[in-house]
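Reopening this ticket.

The earlier resolution said the output was attached, but the attachment link was broken on my side. Pasting everything inline this time so it's all in one place.
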Amino acid sequence: MATTVQGRRGWVRAYTSVDVDSCRPSANDRDDAGGRGGYVRGHHLCSGYVVMESTTKPGFLHVRLAMQCTFHAKDAASIKALAAKCQHLAALDLRLRSCRLSSNQPSN
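Inline output:
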């Protein structure tokens, strides 16, 4: 979704979990009948990215990741999931910088 707030363009990518029969809803659900394969999935209540144009630096964006979720996993798995989100933000930053640099290249 794109919008304008106080003259700045902004974009939102919001998501929430959907129920999938092949994944258990929580780690407390020990019933593995029905071919669930032992998967335990987290639940995103309300998560997403908010991207806004900078007011102080033209051509720059502020990217925020908001996560309200339950991982339903042991601490190590939760930390691994958070680390993956951080890596995704770093990759997004690199991609945006690459696009900005390639669009500023002088043409011959």
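Reporter confirms the inline version is readable. The chain has one domain: 2-103. Strands lie at 2-5, 8-15, 43-53, 61-70.
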